[in-house]
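Q: Structure tokens for this one, please.
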Amino acid sequence: MPHVRNLVYLLLLILLSPWLVINAVTKGKYRQGLTEKLLGLVPRLPASGVDSSKRRIWLHAVSVGEVNLLQPVLQELEQRYPDWECVISTTTKTGYELARQKYSPRTVFYCPLDFSWAVKTALRRIQPDLLVLVELELWPNLIHYATKNCPVTIINGRLSENSTKGYKRLGLLIKPTLRKLKHIAVQNEKYADRFIELGAKNNQITVTGSIKFDGAETNRKNPKTRELRQLAGISDDDVILLVGSSQVEEEELCLKYFKAHMDEFSQLKLILVPRHPERFEEVAQRCRQIEIPFLRRSEMTSSDQTNARLLLIDVIGELGAWWGLTDIAFVGGSLGSRGGQNMIEPAAYGAAVSFGPNTWNFKDIVELILHHQAARVIHSDEEFEEFVRWCIESPEDAAAMGQTAAELVANQQGATRRTVDILSYL
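A: Here is the predicted structure, written as tokens:
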């Protein structure tokens, strides 16, 4: 079976190679970590030893969202078990760079592609005592060969309706892969049912809640947010509209609005945080076209005292801290076809949160927030204009909605502790 999978992967790689080459040349994607991905030549680590108090945990987080999710898990693990060693793999360039930035000096590397030779080589070099897959990474060869030497588990597991349909088509392949997992910790009962529908056993699954709620910062006076406030010259009188993890649809909407209303609302400042770093220059060009003076984060220095009302955050890893400055939040990826981005962070800070209608990646979280009337869905330019005006002209009502969101996030926390309890026994 591994040889069959290798053949399938090779065929897919050949079919996708023109697209991969174009992205590598034009956007710099996929060029880094090729030896790790294709050959499994990840860092070579010494065996963790026979002492059970010294374990090596390999945590795999695909991209930026999953990498950020690891923070509370790492803190809880290392607080409880200071002798355990945590190493982190990721798949994307942005995920890798963020992991290096956030989790140094821990070992960070690119996860091998699911070719049997790459997976086996990586496992020999890492020698993990436990492999932890974040959310949903059902790679058959990785799971097959890892389980020969150590338990493999999924944490913060989630299965969308579309993913379930896709995996069902792989029937004979996916069921044995699921059965090899030692445990599956999922966010809610709905996801648990979907894993069982695909072939997992009831006794493999525990509902822990979503770790995303635990990883959210709630203190607006945290050191990083305070540093950014001073750096950007933001005062208590300013009203901050922040568009986070934005794509072109959200950027067009907000820049158009800001251009039309910046004179009417002189206290309003707009902060754009694009989702993808390869789009930073594209967004900067769009800001130039609307002829509003703006400042790029990469050009700010510790001595800057700026009165710029439009800021472009062209660095990665800072969005969480910028949300702490936000009065009015618009969460990106929700007007186009991406399926939304994480709205928990601005909600945890008590911002007045809004997002577009296309949020299927966060369906359960959105349902929960909207049920408590702790956010607003934006379908059009007119609705966005009404929402921002309401926030500025009715600040007490907007603050009350934000407080409801913050309390909701606080009440959902605890999944990290439950997850680490499970990892402790594997």
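A few notes: The chain has a mean pLDDT of 90. The chain has 19 helices and 14 strands.
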